[in-house]
Design a protein that fits this description.
This protein is about 85% helix and about 0% strand.
Length: about 100
């Protein structure tokens, strides 16, 4: 039971901390920082997989872990997509694919 409360607390804290950090980044820096934050999101996916695996007996926490894994994966995919589009903008017209 203590592990379940700790995992839920960590998940809730990560939500609020992530929200506050993203809101404090100026819009001019948001896209360049996306490529760096993709590595951090990859690490959070590993943490979410571990948390989901530890909570296999509690179905609710396993569901929260699964949602964290899916959310992190969407974040990484979206970050790389935005970074790729941003880098394409800097190429010349003749070198676009």
């Amino acid at each position: 039971m203590n592990e379940s409360i700790l995992l839920l607390f960590t998940f809730t804290l990560a939500i609020f901390l992530g929200f506050e950090l993203i809101n404090k980044v100026p819009s001019q820096l948001h896209t360049p920082l996306m490529s760096g934050s993709n590595a951090i999101s990859g690490i959070s996916i590993v943490g979410a997989i571990i948390a989901a695996g530890m909570a296999s007996e509690d179905k609710f926490l396993a569901l929260i872990g699964f949602i964290a894994v899916v959310g992190g994966a969407v974040n990484v995919f979206g970050g790389y997509t935005v970074t790729h589009r941003m880098l394409r903008m800097f190429k010349g017209k003749e070198s676009k694919q």
